[in-house]
Amino acid sequence: MTEDTVVQLRQPGTFSEDPLTEILRLGARRLLAQAVEMEVTTFVEMHADLTDDAGRRRVVRHGYLPEREIQTGIGPVAVRCPRVRDRGAGETGSRIRFTSAILPPYLRRAKSIEELLPWLYLKGISTGDFSEALAALLGPEAPGLSASTIARLKEVWQGEMEHWQRRDLSARRYVYFWADGVYFSPRLDHDKQCMCVIIGADELGRKELLAVADGYRESAQSWREVLLDLKRRGLVIAPELATGDGALGFWKALREVYGTTREQRCWVHKTANVLNKLPKSAQPRAKQHLQDIWMAETKQDAEKAFDFFLEAYGAKYDKAVACLAKDRDVLLTFYGFPAEHWKHIRTTNPIESTFATVRLRTTKTKGCLSRKTALTMVFKLCQSASKKWRRLDGAHQIAEIIQGVKFKDGEKLTERAA
Q1: Could you give phi then psi for residue 381, rounded to 5 degrees?
Q2: Which helix (H) or strand (E) holds 356?
Q3: How high is the pLDDT of residue 332?
C-alpha cells in the first residue's frame, strides 16, 4: 500500500459524530483532486508543442485557485482547482484558457443537490424549513442553503422554464404524442386545476417533454391552447399517433389542431375504468380477459377477444361493457404501427411513470402551491426524470412511418399487400 492510497481519517485528538461519512468525504476529496489533476495534465500536454518567443513551453501549470466547498450528497467537499498560465498570450493576442469540465468556475453544489431541492419543495417543506431538512440529509455543515438561497433558486428555475416554454420547435419532428392531465389537488391553490402534459417521441425515437401547462379539468380550451402554442412555435407537422385517456377535451382539441393524427386510447386507463364498474370478485378474471385483447398478436385475434368480453360480461355488467365498447376502434389503433412500438404506444406510461412519484409525494402534504410555483417544480422534476428516459425500441422504423410506409399487425406491408 502506497502513501497515496492512504486516507487519513482525522487529526489526532479530533472527534467526529459520523466517522463513516467523514471517511467517504475525505475519499471523495482525494478522488476529485486526482481527477482534476489528470484533467489539467492532459490539457497542458495537448499544448506541449506550443512555445513562446523565448523557446519555453507556452502553456504551463500555475498553482491553484482558492479552495472552495462543493455541496454533495455526503456533505461539503473541499476542492482546489489547478490554474494554467499562457505565457505567450501577449504575443499572439489570444489567450489559451483552461476550464475544468469537472469543476466549472461557479459550481457550488452537485447535480444531486440541485435535484433534491425541488423534490423537497414538492414534498411540502417550506422555504423556511429547508436549512433544517438539508442539515438532516447532508449534515450540519451544509451552509448556503437558507430560505433566501432557495428563493433565488426558484427564480432561476422559473427563468429556465420560461425560456423552455418559448423555445423554437420548427426544426423538430415528433411522430408520437403521449398526453395526460395530471392532478395535484392537495398542493394546488385550486382543486379543479391540473397539469396538461405532453411527451413526444422524435424521429430518432427519443422521448422529450414538449409541454407542461396548467389547465382547468382537462377542458378542450386548455388543451387547445397547449397544442396551438406548440404549433405557433414551429411544430406544424402533425404527429402520426397520439396516446391518451378518454378525456374528451384533449381529443376534441387534437382534431381541431392536428386533424390527421390517429388516436390511441390508453389501455391502462381503460382497464381501470372498466374494472371499476365490476364487483371486486369479478375483477381478476375480467382483467385477464382485457389483457387478452391488447396482448393479441393480430388485430383479428384482438377483435375476437373483444367480442368474447362483450358477450361474457354484457348480460350482468352492462356499464362495464359499454365503457369498453365505446372506444373499440381507437383502442386497437396500435396494430397499424410497428410491433416493436406497441408496448410504448398502447399506454400513457411515459407520463404515468414520471408523475407517479410526484403524486405520491403530494398526496399527504398540506399547504398550497401557487400556479407558477407548481409549474416550475413539475418542470424541474421532469427535467430530472427525462435523463433516465430511453429511446423507443425499433427506433429505426420511425423513418419508415414518416415516409408513409403502412403496417398491419405490426408488420411492414409490401407494395402488393398494401
Answers
A1: -65, -40
A2: helix 349-363
A3: 97
Cell numbers for 394, please give them.
425499433
Question: Do residues 246 and 269 touch, judged by C-beta distance below 8 A?
Answer: yes
For residue 132, the model assigns a pLDDT of 56
Judged by DSSP in three states, 181 sits in strand
Domain boundary among 92, 116, 139: 92
Q: How many CA atoms lie within 13 A of 219 on its CB side?
A: 9
In a domain, 292, yes or no: yes
d(C-alpha 211, C-alpha 226), whole Å: 7
Are β-strands 407-408 and 411-412 bridged in parallel, bridged antiparallel, or unpaired?
Answer: antiparallel
pLDDT attached to residue 202: 95
The low-confidence residues of the chain, meaning pLDDT below 70, are: 1-29, 31-32, 70-75, 89-93, 101-150, 152-153, 184-193, 356-369, 415-418
Q: Domain tally for the chain?
A: 2
Say yes or no: 76 and 169 in one domain.
Answer: no
Alpha helix locations (H) across 166-219? none
CA 229 to the chain's CA centroid: 21
Answer whether residue 135 is part of any domain: no
Give the torsion sign (CA, 57, 61, 63, 65): positive
415 located within any domain: no
Q: Give the per-residue pLDDT at 9.
A: 44
Q: Could you list the residue range(s) of the whole structural domain that residue 75 is in?
A: 3-92
